[in-house]
Amino acid sequence: MFQTKLCEILNIQYPIIQGGMAWVATAELAAAVSEAGGLGIIAAGNAPAEVVEQEIKKAKALTDKPFGVNIMLLSPFVEEVVDVVCREKVSVVTTGAGNPGKFMGRFKEIGTKVIPVVPSVALAKRMEKLGADAVIVEGTEAGGHIGELTTMVLVPQVASEISIPVIAAGGIADGRGFLASLSLGADGVQIGTRFICAEECVVHDNYKQMVIKAKDRDAIVSARTTGHPVRVLKNKLTKEFSQMEKAGATIDEIEKLGVGKLRLAVVEGDIENGSVMAGQIASMVKEIQPCGEIIEDIINGAKEQLNILSQYKKEE
Amino acid sequence: MLFEKVVKIIGEQLGLDDVSNIEATTSLMNDLEADSLDAVEIIMAIEDEFGVEIPDEEAEKFKNIGDIVKYVEANQ
């Protein structure tokens, strides 16, 4: 069930893509998601090309199924990372923080599917024109760096304007969100926050526990005054950020405070002074589960929900 | 004239009431407070209007509205 156009294009069983979360989305997580029938993604983030290469090789050793790499276009190593991804002939590339236009030709040449993350209708149309295979439409509900519009409003608008598959992201964690995304015109979903709490995910246990304990209003937007807002779970660091912003700190000062803080939370497990990026859906993540169970739960939940909704047909 | 047409498109895209003070040296981002997504919309509207292709590598080089006009003139 739920065999969409996206499954065909990416050669995957379920139209579920795991978000390319810097530091979090390593080979272990990506391979586990791909093994479970979704599409796992290794996040390149700001990592040097050698690190990305090792992760790709590790993932290849763990799974024969397709997986992808998320390239952060503002990375100081972006050119070298693109070289590695091409050399390793990675099946799928997702891109964030900009426009992948100038690399598109190289990926297409080797048959790598290119899926940019887009925050607006115009950019989605431009990416389609440039030859993107699909787009990820990410609403502001997502964790990490975010745009302004919500998933609810952005997905249908983009879906109406382009003919390549649309992947909904931001605020999706279960079968209901999955089915809602398909209703909005998406051909699949990208899920980040729930996969943070996957058994196979290597993030520090403190980070996982903080996501599990999070309540509905805990994932707040930080550093809005810099023009690069980030959604994170409330802690000591977010208080510092908001105090600085209130005191009129410069963009440079605020950005400086953020340096290295994601690593501090993910690797060191310092969830008070680190940046615990997570989406608004965090409070719906209740337990640590293997990727296979997460995907199964989402698909089964969507089937159930489809049955519930089909009752309305009887009223005709 | 081409310049006026380009300014008109920019005014419409950014929702500016008054475009009379826009000059060739005006910068979209620095002077008109457009963000990168506004810029994409403007470039695409200009492509549609004048039937030109503006690759991203070229668009990135534009420093002001005069540069956009020059590009359209040369490639129309």
Q: How does this structure look, described?
A:
The complex is a heterodimer of chains A (about 325) and B (about 80). With about 325 residues, chain A is α/β, with parallel strands linked by helices. Chain A folds into two domains: about 210 residues, TIM Barrel (Alpha-Beta Barrel), CATH 3.20.20.70; about 80 residues, no CATH class. In chain A, α2 runs parallel beside α3, α3 packs parallel to α4 and α8 packs across α14. The longest helix of chain A has 20 residues. Chain A starts with a helix and ends in a 6-residue tail after the last helix. The mean pLDDT of chain A is about 95. Chain B is mainly alpha-helical and about 80 residues long. Chain B contains four helices and no strands. Chain B is globular, with a radius of gyration of 11 Å. The chains are: A alpha/beta (about 325), B mainly alpha (about 80). Chains A and B meet through α6 of A and α2 of B.
Summed up:
The complex is a heterodimer of chains A (316) and B (76). By secondary structure, chain A is α/β, with parallel strands linked by helices.
How much helical structure, as a percent, in the residues of chain B? 55-70%
What is the approximate shape of chain A? globular
Helical coverage of chain A, percent range: 40-55%
Number of domains of chain A: 2
The rounded distance between the terminal residues' Cα atoms of chain B is 14 Å
Count of discrete alpha- or pi-helical segments spanning 4 or more residues of chain B? 4
CA radius of gyration of chain B is 11 Å
CATH architecture classification of the largest domain in chain A: Alpha-Beta Barrel
| pLDDT < 50 stretches of chain A | none
According to DSSP, the number of beta strands of chain B is 0
Order of helices and strands of chain B: HHHH
Number of strands of chain A: 11
Whole-number mean pLDDT of chain B:
89
Q: What general outline of chain B do the C-alpha atoms trace?
A: globular
CATH superfamily of the largest domain in chain A: Aldolase class I
Percent of residues of chain A in beta strands? 5-15%
